[in-house]
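Thread: Modeling a multi-component assembly for a lab meeting

Hi all, long-time lurker, first post. My supervisor asked me to bring a structural picture of a complex we are working on to next week's group meeting, and I have zero experience with this. I have the sequence lines for every component (358 residues in total). Could someone generate the structure of the whole assembly? Inputs are pasted exactly as I received them:
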Amino acid sequence: MTPSRTLLGVAPPQWADAWSGLKAIAPLMPGSALFGLAFGALVNVAGINPWVGNFASVSVVAGASQIAIVESIRTGAPAVIAVLTALVINARFALYSAALAPVFAAFPRRWKLGLAHLMTDQAAVVALQEHERWPDPVRRRWFVVGGALPFVAVWCVGSAAGIALGPVIPEAWQIGFIVPLMFLAVLVPGLRGAPALTAVGVSTVVVLAAHGLPYGLNVLAGAIAGIVVGSLVPDRAAHPDTDDGLAHDPGAGE
Amino acid sequence: MKTFLIFLAAGIGTYAIRVSGIVMFGGERRLPPRVERSLRLVGPAALAAIIANSLLLDQGEWRAFGAWHLAALVAVGVALWKRSSGWTMAAGAAAFAALLLAGL
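Re: Modeling a multi-component assembly
Sure thing. I ran the full set together rather than chain by chain. Output:
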């Protein structure tokens, strides 16, 4: 741990924790790159200024809402509608943000403000699932940044490539399948317990039943219904197979 | 210029959404245990909503049964078996490619 071994002002133990975060989210990175490529191709086809397209990926960092904006622009919708549609699609991030508040509580303010921007669905869920393994706030924040920043970087590079190259992926490949697949890969491996299973079931049913709602509001309705109904289901004891001795922690049992 | 302003507004608004809970509930003010318990369901509920909307629906209409559903079933099966994101991505992508090649 000599100062000479620091890289970019970051010491080796912190690099190691960030590396653990990177490894946790790495399986999802090809999905992020491909989704970025698809968004970039859409920007290219729509004839949007390449700089503006790249600015979108860096500033909004939420693929589904960015695609919705491009579609609104293409169909000549008013600017206000384009922005509001995107914000409704992104309203679920308010839920993640509230859930992450106790996870980030002990971080310095500038870390909280910086990490907030990097909280994609995938990074937020990785942080929520794994944070109990990192009780020390310093180690935890390096784990979280390692599991968030590279994923966003891959998204930005993917979309930059798509903007430059255009639709290189043939239509017949139906690259859109990457969206449900990527989210299944985040959700299912860690799925345990009656409340979570109930939340998933209720959310799915409500999204499908409300599929007539405009602006993707059925997604928001499903998520909220899932949370409300799922939290009415009693969580029978901590799960013995995942007990890591932190049963006193209110976050245990995920 | 108009397009830039649209993305700028969406970026600022999205950041405000992302930082809202972290700032409001991040200090000394702890959430009641009941609420914290509910917030643990945010991930599963939100992910399930996105999956249902993108897999079973297509632009708000029902998606015709085919390669998407079958490949997703393979992915779920492997996810429950291996409990690994990497295996899930690989199996789902391979199954989807095979189904498309088979003409489904």
